[in-house]
Specification:
Layout: H1 8-19, H2 26-29, E1 32-34, H3 37-40, E2 72-74, E3 80-81, H4 110-114, H5 118-131, E4 142-145, E5 161-164, H6 180-192, H7 198-207, H8 212-215
C-alpha cells in the first residue's frame, strides 16, 4: 500500500469535514450497511489477515482511503463494524504464537512501547473519518485498532485502523463508549492462558468483534 505524508492543506480541509456536524446527523451522513446475521461469517472469511510493517522506531502519518470510499456496517443490534475492503485488519510480524511471553503476554509495557503518538494518529483520524464520510464529532469516536495491539495487531498500518462510531446507548459529547474493549481484554486473557491460539483470536475479531467471543467459546 502506498504511504505518504498528508499535506497540511489537505488536513485542514479534512478537519472541517470530520468535525462540522452534530452527532445526531450520523445516520444521514455516514454511508452504512445493515448486516443480517448470515452476513457476518462472510466478512474476512478466507482467514488471510494482512501483515503490516510492525512496530517502528519512528512512525509517520499514513495515507488513508480516499474520502467517501469506505462504508460502515451495522449489526442487527446496531453495533458498528468497519468496511472490510478498507479496514480488513493487519497483524504485526513481531508477535507470533511462539513469542507471546516476550510480547503481548509479558506483564506490562508492550502496548505502551509500540503505540504511535497522537502527532501521527491525530491527522490519520481526521483523514479516516473523511474516508468513512463520518461528519460527526470526533470527540465521540475512537480511532481504533481493529486487531488491537494487545492481540498482536499492527500499530500503524492503515488497514488496521478506523474511526469507530459510538455504540448504542452513547451520550453525545460524552466521549467514546466502546464495548469492543471488553472483548479485546477477554481475548487477550484467553490467548495468554492458552485457551485459544493467537491467529484464531485475531481472525475472530477482524471478522466481527461482536461475535468473536461466542465463536471461540469464551465467556
Amino acid at each position: 500500500m502506498l504511504r505518504r505524508h498528508i499535506p497540511a492543506a489537505a488536513l485542514a480541509v479534512l478537519a472541517l469535514a470530520g468535525c462540522s456536524s452534530s452527532p445526531a446527523s450520523s445516520a444521514a451522513t455516514s454511508a452504512e450497511t445493515n448486516l443480517q446475521p448470515a452476513d457476518h461469517a462472510a466478512v474476512a472469511s478466507d482467514g488471510n489477515i494482512p501483515t503490516g510493517p510492525g512496530p517502528q522506531a519512528r512512525y509517520t502519518v499514513q495515507e488513508q482511503p480516499a474520502p467517501g470510499t469506505c462504508h460502515y456496517r451495522y449489526t442487527p443490534a446496531k453495533e458498528p463494524l468497519p468496511d472490510p475492503g478498507c479496514t480488513p485488519g493487519a497483524v504485526s510480524p513481531a508477535v507470533t504464537q511462539s513469542n507471546l511471553a516476550q510480547t503481548i503476554c509479558r506483564p506490562s509495557g508492550y502496548t505502551k512501547g509500540i503505540r504511535p503518538p497522537v502527532a501521527v494518529t491525530g491527522p490519520e483520524k481526521i483523514a479516516n473519518a473523511a474516508s468513512y464520510s463520518d461528519k460527526d464529532s470526533l470527540h465521540d469516536a475512537e480511532y481504533d485498532h481493529l486487531v488491537s495491539l494487545e492481540l498482536g495487531g499492527d500499530p500503524n498500518d492503515p488497514r488496521n485502523l478506523w474511526v469507530e462510531p459510538p455504540s448504542p446507548g452513547h451520550q453525545p459529547g460524552g466521549g467514546p463508549n466502546n464495548p469492543k474493549d471488553q472483548v479485546e481484554t477477554k481475548l487477550h486473557s484467553a490467548i495468554c492462558s492458552g485457551q485459544v491460539q493467537l491467529r484464531d483470536a485475531q481472525q475472530a475479531i477482524a471478522t466481527d468483534w461482536t461475535t468473536a467471543l461466542t465463536k471461540l467459546k469464551i465467556k
